Amino acid sequence: MSMMAGIQGQVLEVTVVGCQKLKDTEWFSRQDPYVVLEYSSTRHRTRTCTDGGKNAVFQEKFMFTMLEGLRDLKVAVWNSNTLSTDDLIGNATIKLQKALSEGYDDCTWTLQSKNGRYAGEVRLILHYAAAKKQNYGSAQLAPPYAPQVPHHSAPYSGPSLYPQVQYSQPQSAYPPASAYPHQPSAYPPPSASAYPPAPSAYPPGPSAYPPPPPSSTYPPQQSPYYPQ
């Protein structure tokens, strides 16, 4: 599909920036140039740059309705005269191929006099907005991407995009009794004989029975040395 297909009725925007190094057609004063654009039967003329001389600035914009099969634009630079006919400074034929295919063209074109000699330069900016729409339309002709899907119903076995989280029953905060072996005590149990028994805080109470006699010689015998 051609990038320039379907230009019929589309709009081409042409901006006349200016001219430079123009051939001088005046002998005693500065020339007054202007630019004429022609496409098919449509003609546009810029204002006259009074005393523009060899370098004239215009910065004027014009619109042209495109015709299928016509991709050339004619440009001519004239010198405006008051008492006589205007003088042709130079002309050129502008090719629109780049503007119609890429949508934009900013270029300086060489002018030629009637004798085919160098007559200066003219700068034009061409803008064709329909080029983007045509390029977009041609891109839409491409078949859409259709991923191949297997016909079997096997589940997806590839790696998951998210980490797998396993849930289990909450565990007790304390381990079971059998989780740890029995450890011997760091200190042996105190011995019964290691410390003496603590004294009683109270005296022993009186016995319920009289004490036994001190000896078997009771009652006492009479002493032979003392009289009774």
TrEMBL record:
<dbReference type="Pfam" id="PF00168">
    <property type="entry name" value="C2"/>
</dbReference>
<protein>
    <recommendedName>
        <fullName>C2 domain-containing protein</fullName>
    </recommendedName>
</protein>
<feature type="compositionally biased region" description="Pro residues">
    <location>
        <begin position="186"/>
        <end position="217"/>
    </location>
</feature>
<feature type="domain" description="C2">
    <location>
        <begin position="1"/>
        <end position="110"/>
    </location>
</feature>
<dbReference type="InterPro" id="IPR035892">
    <property type="entry name" value="C2_domain_sf"/>
</dbReference>
<feature type="region of interest" description="Disordered">
    <location>
        <begin position="149"/>
        <end position="228"/>
    </location>
</feature>
<feature type="compositionally biased region" description="Low complexity">
    <location>
        <begin position="218"/>
        <end position="228"/>
    </location>
</feature>
<feature type="compositionally biased region" description="Low complexity">
    <location>
        <begin position="159"/>
        <end position="185"/>
    </location>
</feature>
<dbReference type="InterPro" id="IPR052981">
    <property type="entry name" value="Ingression_C2_domain"/>
</dbReference>
<dbReference type="InterPro" id="IPR000008">
    <property type="entry name" value="C2_dom"/>
</dbReference>
